[in-house]
Each structure stands twice: as structure tokens, then as C-alpha cells.
Amino acid sequence: MQKKKMVVLGGGNGAALTLSALKKFSEQLEISAVITTADSGASSGQLRREVGMLPPGDLLRAILALSPYDYAVLKKVFYSNRFSFGRLVNINLGNLFLAALHGQSNDIRQAIESLSKAVEAVGKVFPVTLEPTSLNVQLSDGQEIISEANIDRPEHDRSLKIIYAWLDEAVANPEALAAIRQADYIIIGPGSLYTSLVATLLPKGIKEEINNSAAKLWYVVARAFEANGETGPEKLSEAILTLERYLPRPFDGVVYNNHTLDDAEQAAYADRQWQPYELDAGAIQGKRVLGHDFEKTEGVGYSAEKLAVIFRQIFRLQ
After folding, report:
1. How confident is the model over 121-153, as pLDDT tens digits?
2. Terminal C-alpha separation, the chain
3. What is the value of pTM for the model shown?
4. What single string gives the DSSP state of each residue in 201-257?
5. Residue-wise pLDDT tens digits, 52-92
6. Could you give the domains of the chain?
7. Which of 9, 21, 249, 288 suits a disulfide with 308, CB 3.0-4.6 Å?
């Protein structure tokens, strides 16, 4: 049986969620992840500045998500262990491991391959570019915000919405372009609209390759966005239409989390500063839009197991 080729675009915990769901069908799928390289904050930003490497955090999440071993356990090992001395303050073990591998070869691709082999990843991870790049946005008052960290944790008036995003000169990684070219399905998200998703679509060559690809294009939308994060859309329909402005063609399908939050979940969302999207699916025309519940059964967040069941139905997996 010929494997279906699935490419996931994005970054952060959202891409990891989608990859964790897809890996359950690894015998039927050829899985690739094309991951943003615009991160400029936290320990990834520190390593980017001090070592001159691509920000490793989003790449690390994707690699660990594709491991057959328990993702929650791997995250605890690679993310919870942080150093507390010298120049390594607050740098987690996983980012340091990728930095050490990068230091041996000065090639992030070899570092990714080495860690992928170590955790027995069942798919390929490609940085969207091979050079760090800066994500920038223009706000509704004309003000320009430079660098992903300043967009992700804004200090400007939150009533000022992002109206346009661009990258400093950035050329797509040829391996990422090849994965898109060969894909049967391209899945974008979930994740922060600008800092995770749009940032992955902006390097030169990505839009053209998506346009030329015969792949079906799908968007996975989470139940909420970060209330203290980027000043993006607050309605489901607006999130879809905004993302499509950075694509060469509309989505073939959208799957969104339609879970109804009870009082305890609403309180937990508020504690995490998550603001639920307004689910106005009826305002979306001309594409397949599916509402499914992929909220965790216990705790707060999203379930890879539930999302895998949804993917089995949508992509006709066994």
C-alpha cells in the first residue's frame, strides 16, 4: 500500500498536537513537519542570539511529538530540566542538546536528524528556512512591531489589531519545498495565527509551492487563543479568512474544536489566559467546515487521541 504523504505546517504546541495525532497512523502515512524559524523569545531566542543557530524550541517540539515514546514524558525530560547557572540560565535540556549537535556540524539539519534518530521519530522535521528570520507586523494605527517575541507578548494597546505581517528577507528551505510539492495533504495548525502559522507561510517559495501542489489543504483550529498574545482575530470565521490571505488558494477543509466549555473549564481557561473563539461557523461559505470535540477529557487543553479519531474519518485512515 502506498503511503499518503502528510505535511504539517506551523510551530509550537499546536503543530506538536497534530503530529502526535498523525503518528498513530505512521504505518499508513509519510509524515513531514515544516516548522517556523522566526521565534525570537525565551531560551530559543537566547540561543539564536548567542550561538547564531536557528531557534530550536519549535523544532524540538515537533521531533518529540513524532517519537513513538510518550510525548508528555519526553516533554518533561527535555523541557522541565533547565539550567540555573552562567550563560545557560533557563535554557532547557532539549534546546541545549540541539545546540550541542549544531555546534558539532554547524548544520541544523544534521542536529535535527541526530535527535530524530535518538528518539526514533516516525517522520521528518524541516525548518522552513535555514536562517533565522524576523517576523514583523503592522497594526491598525500604522505602527510597526518588529520581532516575533514583541508580537507574541505585546506591550502595545491590545485594541490595535494586526493588519499585515511580513518577514525579513527569507528563502524557504529546499527540503521543506520538496515535502510540500510531494504532499497529498497539507495541514496547517493549530497554533497562534501570526507567530506560528503565518510565519511559516511567508518565506519565499512556500506560497508558490502550495499553489502548484495537488495536495488538499486543511486548517485545524483550536478552541481558544491566548488573551495576552498576539492581537489577532477573535472569531473562527475571521481566523480562517485572515490565514487564507497568506495562502495562494482557499482551504479545502477546516476542522475546529466545537467543545462546549463548562464552568470549571471556563475558569481554567481564564487561569491560563485563554480566550475562546466565537464559533461563527455559519458565516463560512464555500468550503468543508467540520466541528468536532477534541478537548481533553480530563484537564485543560487538547487531545491528540481525539484528534486522531477525527483524522481517521477525514483522511480515510484505518
Report:
1. 999 999 999 988 899 999 999 999 999 889 998
2. 12
3. 0.93
4. H-SBTHHHHHHH---EEEEEE-SEEETTS-----BHHHHHHHHHTTSSS--SEEEEE
5. 678 888 999 999 999 999 888 888 888 765 555 455 556 77
6. 4-38+125-314 (3.40.50.10680)
7. 21
